[in-house]
Prior knowledge:
Blueprint: E1 2-3, E2 8-14, E3 19-22, E4 27-32, E5 36-39, E6 44-46, E7 49-50, E8 54-57, E9 60-62, E10 65-66, E11 71-74, E12 79-81, E13 84-85, E14 90-93, E15 98-100, E16 103-104, E17 109-112, E18 117-119, E19 122-123, E20 128-131, E21 136-138, E22 141-142, E23 145-148, E24 151-153, E25 156-157, E26 162-165, E27 170-172, E28 175-176, E29 182-185, E30 190-192, E31 195-196, E32 201-204, E33 209-211, E34 214-216, E35 220-223, E36 228-230, E37 233-235, E38 238-241, E39 252-254, E40 261-264, E41 273-275, E42 282-285, E43 295-300, E44 307-313, E45 318-324, E46 333-336, E47 342-345, H1 352-356
Parallel strand pairs: 1-3, 2-4, 3-5, 4-6, 4-7, 5-8, 6-9, 7-10, 8-11, 9-12, 10-13, 11-14, 12-15, 13-16, 14-17, 15-18, 16-19, 17-20, 18-21, 19-22, 20-23, 21-24, 22-25, 23-26, 24-27, 25-28, 26-29, 27-30, 28-31, 29-32, 30-33, 31-34, 32-35, 33-36, 34-37, 35-38, 37-39, 38-40, 39-41, 40-42, ...
Antiparallel strand pairs: 42-47, 43-44, 44-45, 46-47
Amino acid sequence: MQVGSGxxxxxxxxxxxxxxxxxxxxxxxxxxxxxxxLVEAGATASGTSxxxxxxxxxxxxxxTAISSGGxxxxxxxxxxxxxxxxxxxxxxxxxxxxxxxxxxxxxxxEQLTGAAAASGTTVSRFGLQYxxxxxxxxxxxxxxxxxxxGAATGDAVIAGGSLIVQLNGVASGVQASGGGATVLVExxxxxxxMTLGNGGLADVFAGGTAVATTLNSGSVAIAGAGGIxxxxxxxxxxxxxxxxGSTGSGAVTFGTSGGGMLQLDDxxxxxxxxxxxxxxxxxxxxxxxxxxxxxxxxxxxNVGNTSGxxxxxxxxxxxxxxxxxxxxxxxxxxxxxxxxxTLIGDPPVVAQTDAQSVGLVNPHRA
Length: 366
């Protein structure tokens, strides 16, 4: 069956074993029930319902609804707009194809391969979007899961959503907030310019890199063993540098909003720099025991007193932290962090509960 140029076919049903070919200049709208529809370059399919069949697009597919067992396959030169993918449905966009405004519903799946591009996709809870190497997405709203091996710009991870940046994946301008909003940066993945809001969590694993992250109140970022969190700004949130983790070459900066925390699980070997530290911020040195033997000292490192070394020791373990700025040793305070380590404030700690209020539990770590 064919729909030629200048012709429109509506309310059709393509059953098993039947192929409908919509030629350039033609248009069609109907239901695919185990059959196949070919939408050639220059042709249009609108409002199609795919229930167990397949629609192959070189032209334009608009307002397609894909249910269980159905597939919309967008090939080079093809475009899909406002697609809805229900449980068991699949949208595949191949190299040279594009989609915009799709909704990946619960149990739905979208796959982008090669140089495919997607914009404005909504990935609902329990929905999955896979962005392969060479593919790109922009402005996705992620309440389900996005697996990123390509490039993403301006994604928003909302409550319950997960962005997993895999090998070769590069994400920029990500925002994550809401309970359970999670960004995981795996080996070979990179995230830059990320902003975490209340409830947002970022975990940088071995071989992963996060650059220029901003941690607002109620958010947590973790540089795990072998992970790098470089040039982080703590504006009320918390950065944990685990044993073997690193802050790279850029300083950790406490923002003007205050109330943030830098937790160093292995402060004895911390080689980074800290800027903007002051009330009501905290340094949590987990490996320096707090007690009667705990000492705090500060030595200016240059003539202008623009940097120096904060030294904290429990008599056995010693941490030397490079601080950028001007400090007075008498202003530093020490207290128990409630976990066996030492909490440092400048000037005096207001209340220990203030330091603990920014802590969140990372569900991805024991």
